[in-house]
Amino acid sequence: MRRYFRALMLCAVFAVFSGLFVYRKLFDSDGRNGAKRIFIPQRVPGARRGAADKTGPQSPHWYNRYIMRQRGQVESGGGSIQSSLEPPMHLAVVACGERLEETVTMIKSAVLLSIKRLCLHIFAEDQLHASFMEALESWPGFVRSRFNYTVYSISFPSENAAEWKKLFKPCASQRLFLPMILKHVDSLVYVDSDILFLQPVDRLWALLSRFNSSQLAAMAPEHEEPRIAWYSRFARHPFYGRTGINSGVMLMNMTRMRNMFFKNDMTSAGLRWEELLMPLLQKYKLNITWGDQDLLNIIFHHNPGSLLEFPCQWNYRPDHCIYGSNCASAEEDGIYILHGNRGVYHDRKQPAFRAVYEAIRKYSFGADPLISLLAPLEEELLKTTHTYCGKSHVLFTKRLAHSLEIINKKVPHGR
What we know:
Radius of gyration: 26 Å
Shape: globular
Strand order of the largest sheet: 1-4-3-2-5-8-7-9
Number of strands: 10
Largest sheet: 8 strands, mixed
C-alpha cells in the first residue's frame, strides 16, 4: 500500500514540475517574439473614431488630431538606444489628389540622407491613408528603424472648411493650421510634396539654432531679382521684403508661433496666429493668387523681424535657372533642396529636374547609392544640357554626391 502511495506522490510532483516547465517555455517564446504591431487608432478628447469629416469635426476643438496610423518607437526594430533617446526632427507634408508617389519620393529622399531620426507628419485625404502606409511599411527594416510616422486626415475649421480647402490648391492651406493641430510639437520643417532633399534634413534643422529671440520661421525668397520677380510686379497685397517669400520649404518654431501676438493691418491690437488667419483671408481673398503663400507674405510683411530668410539653395526652383542661373548660393555650394513646382517632375519642360526625381524614385534601399542613384543621374543630366537648367547640371549633384558618400559608409547594402 505504501509503495502505491509513494508512486502516486512521485507522479503528482512530476506533473507539477512538467507544467511549470511548459509554462516557462511558452512565456520565454512570447517574450522573444517582441512587441507586436497594433493598428488601433488613438483617440483624443473631442475627436471621433473613424474617418474624419470632410469639412472638419463640428467642434470648437476641430484641431484635435485624428491619428489613422502611427509607428512608435516600439516598432523601430534595430535602432540604437542612443538614437531612440535623441529628440527626432519633425517633418510635415500635405498630400491631396494625385500626390501619393511624389510625396513618397520626397520622404525617401529625406530618410535616405538624414542622420538623426525623423518623425513624419503626413496630412492626406482619407483615400490615400492605406496607400501611404503600404508604401512606407514596404521599405526594409533597417530603413524603417530611422523614422516613425503619423498619417492624419485633412481638417479645417468647420465653419470655413470649404473655403480653406479650395484656396489655391486642394488642401495646400492645411499648413497654416499646423501650430494648432500639432500642439505637442515644438518645431517643425514643413515642405511641399514636390520637394527633394539633396542633403540631410539635419542641415536645415540646424538653422533653428540660428533663430534670434524674435524669429519664429524661416523661408527662402520667392525670387532673386526684383525686376522680374512675381510679387514685385503683380502682387495686389503686401508681401515680405523686395521679392516676397516662397513657402515650399518652411522651418517653424511653432511654440513661438502659438505664443506671439502678430501685428496686422486690421486692428491696432496684436492677434494670435489662430485669431489672425480667417480675418486675413476675408480681407484679401479677392486679391491673392497663391493662396496660403500670399497670406504668409502678408503676415511677415507686418512682422519682418519674426522671419529668418535663408538662401535660395534651400529652395531651388526652375525660376532659378530657366532663363539662366540666378541663385548665387547654389552656384557657390550646390543645391541643398530641389523644388519641382509647376509639375516639372512629370513633364518634359525641365528635364534636369525630372532626372533627379526619377533617379530617387527608382532607387532601391540597400543598393549602393553611388552606383545605383548618383551614376545614372549624372548620365541623364548630361542629356539635358540643351536647356538652361541642364547647363547648370553640376549644381544638381554637387551636394547630393557629398551626402551619398557620407551615408554610403554607414548604410548596409544588399539587404
